[in-house]
Design goal:
Strand content: 15-25%
Shape: globular
Number of helices: 9
CATH class: Alpha Beta
Order of helices and strands: EHEHEHEEHEEEHHEHHEH
Largest sheet: 10 strands, mixed
Structural class: alpha/beta
Number of strands: 10
CATH superfamily: Spore Coat Polysaccharide Biosynthesis Protein SpsA, Chain A
């Protein structure tokens, strides 16, 4: 089973180097990295030139919407399973892809999601928040539940059935995609009960100036799926306890990203 990893990036330095390094450190052999970038002004373009002989790199000539870029990556991928790795993030350990592939095979899953650690922007070892992955129950969707889409690993043929990410939403397209995916009764998708990713804090959905846009998009998505807008409140409340699970990590894998 081949796994395609898609990274969408614009102005991704210096953390993009950690994301690529994290992919390279994975012990799983049947893998490919696809990077889709928008024109940048921080050295990202020059760095990607150095990677062209090793990885598939494509320029997003359209809107610059990260979900458009992800869709390009999905179309260009040749793997059986597709996962995402944002330019700010890293996989949890050396065996992340191996463990995910093993879970999907053994449990005959169409897709899987896992836990995510959210670290300080400038220190991957300090974890501010933890999203823990438990087993899927459809009723949870009515209470604001959604796995981080960067923790999702989905068989490529699923996208032909549920469609790609919508480019109508700048912030919340992942939420709209997850509702389409998890409300479909034809797929077997469940938790691996593993941590998949360490994400640096500071994504679009956390920026204060974009919170209003996210709220507007979430309401539009809920209306589209004929769901109560009060789910937004539940969605916010489900995050509160995540902030009381702080921890520090210090291991050989994380030391790979520091001059130690």
């Amino acid at each position: 089973m081949k796994i395609s990893i898609i990274t969408a990036v614009k102005n991704g330095m210096p953390y993009l180097k950690d994301a690529v390094r994290s992919f390279e450190l994975q012990d799983y052999k049947k893998k490919e990295l696809i990077i889709v970038y928008s024109k940048s002004n921080d050295g990202t373009d020059n760095y990607l030139v150095s990677l062209k002989k090793k990885y598939k790199i494509f320029l997003d000539k359209n809107t610059g919407n990260k979900f458009d870029a992800i869709n390009i990556g999905i179309k260009k991928s040749t793997g059986d399973v597709i996962g995402l790795l944002h330019a700010d993030d890293i996989f949890f350990n050396y065996k992340t892809l191996s463990n995910i592939a093993d879970k999907i095979k053994k449990n005959k899953l169409d897709g899987a999601y896992g836990g995510v650690y959210f670290s300080k922007k400038n220190n991957l070892k300090i974890i501010n928040r933890i999203w823990e992955a438990d087993n899927f129950k459809r009723k949870k969707l009515y209470y604001g539940w959604m796995p981080p889409h960067t923790s999702l690993f989905i068989k490529k043929n699923i996208f032909t059935k549920v469609g790609l990410y919508s480019n109508k939403f700048r912030i919340s397209s992942d939420y709209e995609f997850i509702l389409r995916l998890f409300f479909n009764n034809n797929f077997k998708i469940n938790s691996t009960n593993l941590i998949h990713t360490i994400m640096r804090d500071g994504g679009d959905s956390r920026k204060i100036k974009l919170l209003l846009l996210k709220l507007i998009e979430d309401i539009s998505i809920l209306n589209k799926h004929k769901l109560s807008v009060f789910i937004i409140i539940a969605k916010i409340l489900t995050k509160f306890n995540q902030f009381f699970k702080n921890k520090k990590i210090n291991n050989k894998y994380l030391n790979e990203f520091y001059n130690i």
